[in-house]
Specification:
Elements (H helix, E strand, L loop, with lengths): L5 E4 L6 E2 L1 H14 L18 H9 L8 H14 L6 E2 L3 H8 L4 E6 L3 H12 L3 H4 L3 E4 L6 H11 L7 E5 L2 H9 L3 E5 L6 H7 L3 E3 L2 H9 L3
Parallel strand pairs: 1-4, 1-6, 4-5, 6-7, 7-8
Antiparallel strand pairs: 2-3
C-alpha cells in the first residue's frame, strides 16, 4: 500500500459527537415549517447526509418538499447560534491526533460551514487545535456532494490521491473518498453502521480512534 501523507477527517461522528445539537435544531426547524417533528430517537440517521436531503426527506410526507431549501438555510442560522456549542469530542480523539501530529498533513473536511466547524473544534479541542493539528478546515455547508469539497481541497493543497486518506463515519465520507480516488477509513463509533461502511466500500473499518491511529501510522 502507498504511504499516507495527507489525512482528511470528517467532523460530525468522527472527531466530535454533534447529536444533541443537530437533532434539537432539526426538530425546531421542522416545527417552524408547520410539520410535526419526529421524536429525537428517530433522527439519528440525519447525522451525515447533506442538509437539503435531510429536509427533503422530512418534509416530503407532508407535501412540503419545496420548503427544503428554506428549512436548510434556517437550520444553519439556528445551529450557528446554539446547536454548534452542544458538540462533544469522542473519547480518544485527541490522543489519536497527537499520535498522528507531525507525521502527515491533517485536515478537516465537513458538510458544515467552515466557520461553524472551526467553532466546534475550538470548543471541543481548544483554540490551539486549529494550528496544532489541522492545516485547514474545509466546509461545504451541506448543500453539495462532499466529494466536491474534498476534490477542491486536494487540488489547492496539491495532494497526491494515492498518498491521501479520508476518515469518516458515514457512507457519504467513503463515497466522497472513492470518487476522489483516495483511501477510505470508516469508523463505527459515530453514526454510521459497519454494514453501511462495508456496503460503501471502505478500505478499512476502525471501531475506535486508537484503531484509526494504528492503521494510519502503519501507512506513514
Amino acid at each position: 500500500m502507498a504511504r499516507i501523507e495527507n489525512i482528511l477527517f470528517d467532523l460530525d461522528g468522527t472527531l466530535t459527537d454533534p447529536g444533541i445539537g443537530i437533532v434539537s435544531t432539526i426538530r425546531q426547524v421542522i416545527a417552524e415549517m408547520g410539520v410535526a417533528a419526529p421524536a429525537a430517537a428517530e433522527l439519528r440517521w440525519c447525522m451525515g447526509p447533506p442538509l437539503i436531503d435531510v429536509f427533503t426527506h422530512l418534509l416530503e410526507p407532508a407535501g412540503k418538499r419545496e420548503l427544503a431549501s428554506r428549512a436548510a438555510s434556517l437550520y444553519m442560522q439556528r445551529y450557528a447560534v446554539a446547536g454548534a456549542t452542544q458538540s462533544t469530542p469522542y473519547a480518544g480523539v485527541e490522543a489519536m491526533l497527537e499520535r498522528l501530529r507531525g507525521k502527515a498533513r491533517m485536515y478537516v473536511a465537513t458538510n458544515k460551514s467552515g466557520a461553524i466547524a472551526e467553532r466546534i473544534i475550538v470548543a471541543c479541542l481548544g483554540a490551539r487545535a486549529l494550528g496544532r493539528y489541522f492545516e485547514e478546515v474545509v466546509g461545504n455547508a451541506r448543500f453539495e456532494d462532499k466529494s466536491e469539497a474534498v476534490r477542491g481541497l486536494m487540488e489547492r493543497a496539491r495532494m497526491d490521491p494515492v498518498a491521501t486518506a479520508i476518515v469518516g463515519d458515514r457512507e457519504h465520507d467513503v463515497l466522497a473518498g472513492k470518487r476522489c480516488g483516495i483511501s477510505t477509513v470508516g469508523v463505527t463509533y459515530g453514526y454510521g453502521s459497519r454494514e453501511e461502511l462495508v456496503a460503501a466500500g471502505a478500505d478499512y473499518i476502525a471501531d475506535d480512534p486508537a484503531a484509526v491511529a494504528r492503521y494510519l501510522l502503519g501507512r506513514i
